[in-house]
Amino acid sequence: MKITIFGTGYVGLVTGTCLADAGHEVLCMDVDENKIARLKDGEIPIFEPGLESMVKSNVAGGRLDFTTDPVAAVGFGQLQFIAVGTPPDEDGSADLQYVLSVADTIGRHMTDYKVIVDKSTVPVGTADRVSQTVAAALEGRGESIEFDVCSNPEFLKEGAAIKDFTHGARIIVGTESERVMRLMRECYAPYNRHHEKMMFMDVRAAELTKYAANAMLATKISFMNEIANLAERLGADVEQVRRGIGSDPRIGYSFIYPGCGYGGSCFPKDVQALAHTATEVDYQPELLNAVEAVNFRQKKTLYTKLAQAFDGDLKGRTIALWGLAFKPNTDDMRDAPSRTLMEALWEAGATVQAFDPEAMKECRRIYGERDDLVLVADRVQAVKGADALVICTEWKDFRIVDFDWLKRQLSTPVIVDGRNLFDPQAAKEAGLMYYGVGRGDSL
Ligand code: UGA
């Protein structure tokens, strides 16, 4: 099939590349000329394991191409995926200007039947607005050409995007049209071979499914963080509680890891957007608001624990950070807990000495050159001469540590383990002052 993808961000690039890899002919369009030029050379703008080689091989194989030309893009695919960004507006609602601008572009240039596929995470009702926008653009040209709009939300995780796309749990398509069902089946056939993963439903149900899935996962995390905070005050170890409740198949082990709060480009934005949608239909989203509030508080706990360890005075201290990205295997720092911590430390007059295997460039891009931000080449240099160590991201490289060595590096042997990587007992036995998340008497 011939497929066009609008937007070469995470979702667009992974979708386009995986569909090309499955044998389709894919043209990805983006307004960013520099990005498209780099992609044509096989250079990808994001860090995602396995993606670069997949882009290169599909470009070389002639199945994947990139363009900035909207006319060529609209003319190319029978399926037109919209995978552009939906950044949050100031009130938390999703800003649809880019989605609707693509819809307008499609309406202006289409000359035959198209299926417009909403891939971006968009509020319930967006497919109707996309439809109206395309229809208005067609009317402006005095044309009446048939088209359909369907919702096909994406459930990929950064760092595991290719596997999530190619081996996802489900492929959801919101449409009532038999023709669209047939075309979407054909599109996903290469990834729907072993068992039936396609789920067809109403457009609005598909749109809400995406938000409900992310809100549910965010709820699990905030719930667990709340239990961790309680455990801390009650002298219990939340890691034991986690295993205890995870063993119940109704609860399950995934997404119940307590920590320093969820970040990234999805959970914070989607929980807020769904809460905003709720208020628009006169519903008070008590639970969603609480999930967000608990997370906001959780992101501050790294600083609170440090401040406690230093009797509230962090001025002139040097704090080592291991991990800047919002989670491992990505260079993404959007809404990362490390940012809340760094900003609080700077406010308190401390210096940050940080290392992350992938996000150093991103950190420099966000914060620029400043005296109180020292980015070092590895985890060993990060702790050299530092007063305390904070773990913000659970990268594999951080999991094994010689505590005796660590104690010798830190001038005040304080370790704040925002991801519960270490055994509190072992850390304490080595003479470290260990602060985990919800680890019994670690307060
Ligand atoms: C999330 C969802 O997991 C995907 O299914 C979804 O498609 C995606 O959002 C999206 O909407 O595009 P992602 O944001 O890439 O994916 O990352 P996750 O692995 O879900 O992690 C999100 C945050 O939750 C991270 O900050 C992570 O550290 C935190 N987390 C996760 C916890 O604190 N505890 C856990 O048990 C799990």
UniProtKB/TrEMBL annotation:
Single GO BP term: polysaccharide biosynthetic process
GO molecular function, one term: UDP-glucose 6-dehydrogenase activity
Reaction it catalyzes: UDP-alpha-D-glucose + 2 NAD(+) + H2O = UDP-alpha-D-glucuronate + 2 NADH + 3 H(+)
Keyword Cell membrane in annotation: no
UniProt KW Membrane keyword: no
Gene3D superfamilies (alphabetical): Cytochrome c1, transmembrane anchor, C-terminal, NAD(P)-binding Rossmann-like Domain
UniProt: NAD(+) binding residues: D30, K35, T86, T121, E158, K269, R334
Enzyme class: oxidoreductase
Domain of life: Bacteria
Catalytic residues as annotated in Swiss-Prot or TrEMBL: C266 (nucleophile)
Pathway in which this enzyme or protein is active: Nucleotide-sugar biosynthesis; UDP-alpha-D-glucuronate biosynthesis; UDP-alpha-D-glucuronate from UDP-alpha-D-glucose: step 1/1
Protein keywords: NAD, Oxidoreductase
Domain UDP-glucose/GDP-mannose dehydrogenase C-terminal residues, every copy: 320-424
The enzyme's E.C. designation: 1.1.1.22
Record: residues binding substrate: F155, L156, K157, E158, K210, F255, I256, Y257, P258, G259, G263, K327
Similarity-based family: Belongs to the UDP-glucose/GDP-mannose dehydrogenase family.
Protein name: UDP-glucose 6-dehydrogenase
Gene source species: Pistricoccus aurantiacus
